[in-house]
């Protein structure tokens, strides 16, 4: 009986690890596919996609009511945000992510001149860590799906940081980043809404 229980234990755990590996492999392939498609976009196409997405977000009630917005300083492979950060910071407090070790912090955006490369080689504000409340988060992702699941780069910074925050979270990206279904684990978060140029999923 003891031998049977041990066997079942190992079979169950082996099955679990097999499933986790399949999810990991699928995520790896999706990330590779998305990276390849992003490389084909021109700067004009990226900017036009951002214009459509962020102008739509500007019509959303949660955005209009928000006084403090957590956003991201886009890299060349993400939906461009720099123009909208500058624009929105005239009337709202804009917060940007700052990474320290395994933790994500927020810092207030003041101007493009007060930015520097952080630990992850990503641009972040030089201002003090912001410890107050924010009303809305607008974040990137590698992929999203119709059930509002989000797949990131694999480090889990946004998942860990936002899990305990009771605020609307908007996921943004290009149309090809919105898939029918993406593989998920318990650590992966859902967003409140997904926005791409041709799609809005609430």
Helix content: 25-40%
Number of domains: 1
Backbone structural class: alpha/beta
- The CATH class is identified as Alpha Beta
Biggest sheet record: 8 strands, mixed
- The name of the CATH topology is Rossmann fold
The largest sheet has its strands arranged as 6-3-2-1-7-10-12-13
Ends: how far apart? 51 Å
In terms of DSSP E residues, the strand content is: 15-25%
The radius of gyration is 19 Å
Q: Describe the oligomeric state of these chains in a short phrase.
A: single chain
> What is the total tally of β strands?
13
Task: Give the name of the CATH superfamily.
Answer: NagB/RpiA/CoA transferase-like
SSE string: HHHEHEEEEEEEEHEEEE
Fold and architecture overview:
This protein has 202 residues and is an alpha/beta fold. It has one domain (2-201): 3-Layer(aba) Sandwich (Rossmann fold), CATH 3.40.50. 35% of the residues lie in helices and 23% in strands. The protein is built from 5 helices and 13 strands. It has helices spanning 2-39, 43-57, 61-65, 82-88, 157-162; strands at residues 68-70, 93-100, 103-108, 115-117, 123-125, 129-130, 136-139, 143-145, 150-151, 169-172, 178-179, 193-196, 199-201. Strand 1, helix 4 (82-88) and strand 2 (93-100) form a beta-alpha-beta unit. The radius of gyration is 19 Å and the shape is globular. The termini are far apart.
Task: Detail the topology: elements first, then pairings.
Blueprint: H1 2-39, H2 43-57, H3 61-65, E1 68-70, H4 82-88, E2 93-100, E3 103-108, E4 115-117, E5 123-125, E6 129-130, E7 136-139, E8 143-145, E9 150-151, H5 157-162, E10 169-172, E11 178-179, E12 193-196, E13 199-201
Parallel strand pairs: 1-2, 1-7, 7-10, 8-11, 10-12
Antiparallel strand pairs: 2-3, 3-6, 4-5, 8-9, 12-13
């Amino acid at each position: 009986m003891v031998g049977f229980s041990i066997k079942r234990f190992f079979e169950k755990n082996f099955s679990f690890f097999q499933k986790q590996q399949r999810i990991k492999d699928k995520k790896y392939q999706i990330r590779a596919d998305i990276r390849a498609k992003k490389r084909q976009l021109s700067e004009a196409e990226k900017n036009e996609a951002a214009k459509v997405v962020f102008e739509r977000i500007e019509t959303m009630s949660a955005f209009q009511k928000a006084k403090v917005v957590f956003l991201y300083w886009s890299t060349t492979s993400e939906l461009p945000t720099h123009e909208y950060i500058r624009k929105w910071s005239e009337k709202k407090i804009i917060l940007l992510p700052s990474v320290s070790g395994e933790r994500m912090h927020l810092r207030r955006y003041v101007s493009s001149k007060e930015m520097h490369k952080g630990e992850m080689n990503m641009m972040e504000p030089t201002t003090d860590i912001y410890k107050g409340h924010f009303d809305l988060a607008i974040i990137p992702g590698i992929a999203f799906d119709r059930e509002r699941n989000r797949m990131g780069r694999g480090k889990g910074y946004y998942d860990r940081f936002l899990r305990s925050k009771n605020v609307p979270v908007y996921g943004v990206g290009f149309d090809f980043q919105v898939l029918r279904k993406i593989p998920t684990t318990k650590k992966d978060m859902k967003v409140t809404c997904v926005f791409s140029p041709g799609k809005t999923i609430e």
